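To close the chapter, one final illustration. This time we ask the reader to focus less on the individual chains and more on the assembly as a whole: which components sit near each other, and how the overall shape emerges from the parts.
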Amino acid sequence: MSATALDADPARRVLNEVFGYADFRGEQREIVDHVAAGGDALVLMPTGGGKSLCYQVPAILRHQAGQGVTVVVSPLIALMHDQVGALDEFGVRAAFLNSTLEGDEARRVERDLMAGRLVLLYAAPERILTPRFMAMLESLAERGLLGLFAIDEAHCVSQWGHDFREEYLGLSALHERFPGVPRMALTATADDHTRADIVARLQLAEARLFVASFDRPNIRYTIVEKDDPRRQLLRFIRDEHEGDAGIVYCQSRKKVEETAAWLVQEGIAALPYHAGLEAEMRRRHQDRFLREDGLVIVATIAFGMGIDKPDVRFVAHLDLPKNIEAYYQETGRGGRDGLAADAWMAYGLADVVNQRRMIDESEAEEEFKRLQRGKLDALLALAEAHDCRRVRLLAYFGEASGPCGNCDNCLAAPATWDATEAARKALSCVYRFKQQGGRHFGAGHLIDVLRGKATDKVAQFRHEKLSTFGIGADVSETQWRSVLRQLIALGHLRTEGEFNTLELTPSAREVLKGEVQLLLRVPSDAPKRSAKATRSTRPKPPPLPLDEAAAARFAELKAWRAEVAREHNLPAYIVFVDAALAEMARQRPATLDELAGISGVGAKKLEAYGAEILRVLESSE
Ligand code: ADP
Ligand code: ZN
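The assembled structure is written out below.
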């Protein structure tokens, strides 16, 4: 674009010159124009979709136009710190106010704010709603220096969502006190319920709604059956992500610690993170994960919100998440830089049973439980699916799509078997237990009886006398587990009590009568019809396709970046993301002009680092 055309397009100029990016992505352009012109907006965009720019560019434009500061409401201190660090690297005046600042620093920030020097100010909601802060906002507003409110992670306002924060409810005060100041709310989690809550509670009925595609094409989804989950995880990391940064989610604190310790023992650099660890240790582990290259963090869901490390190469789940929203948000933390990333999950019968029980036993109201059960069902259907995972994920968020070619099922269509008959046998065996002795039994015993195993328990209850004893000897134990899991997932069987005994539900009749057809994936230890279904033949995703010489330059650039990051006390990716360094290594620019053409190199970074980068590139042969 020529200089004059850029002058006529200030948003584009800011994108190019400040951030160094060539083009807006997807909906960014429209959102920026709408908000910069003073409109209200509700922005739904997947994690990694590029929400920050949607308020940062308008903030810069409005500040340049003399309209003052953009106040960003953000729930997390770590996030504020890194966002401000990143803006600083781009040469944008930004600051945060939170409890980590010393009195002096906080006063300096307040002075800058009141003098109209700040382009963006980040603060937590509880801070913003204090009388002192509201008074400062009043004073700015009177002088026309309050340009925009951006409410990040807006789903925190909804009790239905999974990150509800009481303080967010108070944010409607912003609109009441400052009706003339434009507001935008942004979130990555947005089922209809949550969306309606955001609109109602933040009074955004008049705001324009922007719904970006939820697709994250660079993430490859894989869901495997649990067999020996730790070993499966280790194999996955060793085969596909040696030396990569990744997140492993587990449900309990104990499992987090055990898994982290075990990975370390197996030679993988891993750190635990959960809410039961001392605050200081938590902070240290999070910091190391953000700052160092190639660490694996093993965590409960306490970890992750606001973690915008762009080069997380995999997100693994050793336990089933609560629902698809949670799964999508957690897996969305992989591959924010747009390069290939994996979302990998191992799941089994116990996961289904546990999740169901957690809902059943919670204190919540029946309506809430029903909603949770519905959400769990959708997740189970995803896990059991033999068609494209992405099609199902996107459909859940209301988006139609075709087979993606980048999920396990697309890459190697799983073999299936007709389990209709087996399901009938299992259910009638449960029925016979009840009929014979008025008792219920768990999955292990049921499978023993179906397979005709002479165990002590079988003898004790004389189950060898049942007509169902041994009628399923031709079906492997793993296959039986998959049948039971599916029956529980579909709601034809439910589990009861401490021992998870199995009971029929009313809908079991339909299966017994042969009205329900069950087509199941062939479990991994059963004979395979498709040889392609083994993991080892899957093509390894190439995160950075560089030739040997370029890879060497990339390594040197990374070493240089690590030094700069240490000096500035910033995560390496804030200096430059991997994608930018890889592009430099590939193109090998020889002049500052050529370097400026690379995505991610804005004016400030060019000035600060350009000469050094050229030197690094020149000296590497
Ligand atoms: P979100 O907050 O939606 O999860 P971010 O705002 O953190 O996503 O953006 C994700 C990544 O994409 C960041 O590294 C960001 O710099 C990059 N990015 C965003 N918009 C663009 C763009 N138009 N061109 C290039 N990179 C972009
Ligand atoms: Zn697919």
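Confidence is low (pLDDT under 50) at residues 526-542. The pocket of zinc ion (ligand 2) is lined by residues 388-390, 403-404, 407, 409-410 (CB under 6 Å). With these observations in hand, you are ready for the problems at the end of the chapter.
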